[in-house]
Amino acid sequence: MSLQVRDLTIEIAGRRVVDGISFEVAGSQRMGLIGESGSGKSLTALAVLGLLPDGATAGGSIRWNDRELIGLPDRELADIRGDEIGIVFQEPRTALNPIRTVGRQIAEAVRIHEHVSRRAARERAVAEAARVHLPDPERIVDRYPHQLSGGQRQRVAIAMALACRPRLLIADEPTTALDVTIQAEILELLQSLVDDDGMSLVFITHDLAVLSKIADHGVVLEHGHVVESAPVRRLLTEPASPVTQGSLRDATATLWKPEGRS
């Protein structure tokens, strides 16, 4: 199972915002896309699943297990989303449907891809809620997103993405909106689930310190271009690009910040 991105371009309203990005994610590899806002990392992730905003067009090649995804009809992409490739978005408050229980949302992909009964889907939702360590899963699946904390909503989003046991998980800055303690818990959870399922991971972040905790290889983006691609260990010890060097300074400042200071 592998993802190959070659010379990816994305244009919005005639402006090229991603220009020639290439990388590969092999089976069970944990890779990170890192860059500041506007670098093209989230658009790249959306392009993989054919979820680019209206008016955006993608060129180049995105191959999943030797199957070209660019230009694939949406109906065929829908068969891949959630089943073979899962995605966790940055802000679960906007990713979750406010008028549906979280249990129904966790079970949705299962019902679509595995064609199970409503009762079986609910049982699966409870099991998935327990798997991501949500408290009292039998009851929490009947709650609505606004009744959960930010960390609990993100666990719901992870459960939704992994319910069908995809072979690749894309996590788009899943800890950015959370406080530091919850961030650490979510990172630990993701790492455990990825290891347990033996899946590949594309982790998107602007924070090299966060990336170092979950990925083994990093692709650094700036203004839609790849400026560096290397093992995370090398990015931390021998950053070659000014962008990575700046990220390392920020990461070092964060890691060595005295307790009690914000």
Automatic annotation (TrEMBL):
Coiled coil: none annotated. GO terms for molecular function: ATP binding. It is a peripheral membrane protein. It is found in: Cell membrane. It comes from the Bacteria. It holds the Pfam family ABC_tran. Gene3D superfamilies: P-loop containing nucleotide triphosphate hydrolases (3.40.50.300). This is ABC transporter ATP-binding protein.
